[in-house]
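Input/output pair, single chain:
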Amino acid sequence: MKNKRALLISVLFLIGSNLCQAANSSEDLLPEGQIVFTIGDYLPSHRNDLYALVDSGKRLKQLTDNHILDDFAQCSPTSSEIVYISAAEDKWDWDVWTLNLRHIRPKVVQNNKGRDLTPTWTHQGNIAWSADFTPDWIKWFKTTEEKNYELVVKAPQDTLFQRLTFNHTWEETPTWHRQGEWILYTSTTSPSSDPGNIYRMKTDGTQAQPFIELPGLQKNAKWSPDGQWVIFESSDSVGFEQQSDVYLADSIGGSITNLTQGIGLNGYPSWAGNSQWILFHSNRNGNYDIFRMRRDGSEIVQVTHSSLNEFRPTWCRY
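Output:
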């Protein structure tokens, strides 16, 4: 099984290299850098590992190999590290880790009981995530509708985190504005069964207010590096999604545009450095692959090709 996996990943590398070599003949394909993403089972409950496409997509580099779960990577403001979720120490507990991209040195940031989710970096290089505050008796015996995830933030070197939300519901996928004044995040009773919208609040946790309200579930919002735009994922339903697309909005949540136009399940958008390009994953061809497009939804190009699932991309400058 391990040899089969290695062969499939080699195929990904070879085809991906050919794709990128051909695409480099066109101008401004993507800014120089690397794409970090997950390869494995799209549902975060089986073996998922982190990889990077480096050298303009000509080389595939494995970053983790924990045989259980490494997922939800986000690149730091300096592009020297990623933050991600890992079950390296306990398959039942998902913790927040960082990894130095140059030296491949993983380090646990927060080790809590429960399953932490959707980590990110603040504009100052601190780390925020969705922390599991569900009481044990609910965690093990009740459904996801009764679980409680709240947003927290801490400096990497600190021991204690600061709690930002106290809603006793499910808050996830925080993202910081480049000037550090506002946070966007998703709030829902349960992402598996209930609709949810994107909210905005001050970075101290005050002045929470709806930002984008659409039918279904809105999540994975990201402010552009220049602070002028917001990309996010919108699902037409919850639970077993029938359709999801990547949308673009302006910095105040208006002028909403569907960029992927209903072809497959499209999601987890990420900016590619210069606010002109967007990465996202899609299963429009069967399994999940990484794609890129311009900010207006044009020039969509498939970046990875294999029979495996490649998903949740993030772009790093170096």
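The chain has one domain: 2-316. DSSP finds two helices and 24 strands in the chain.
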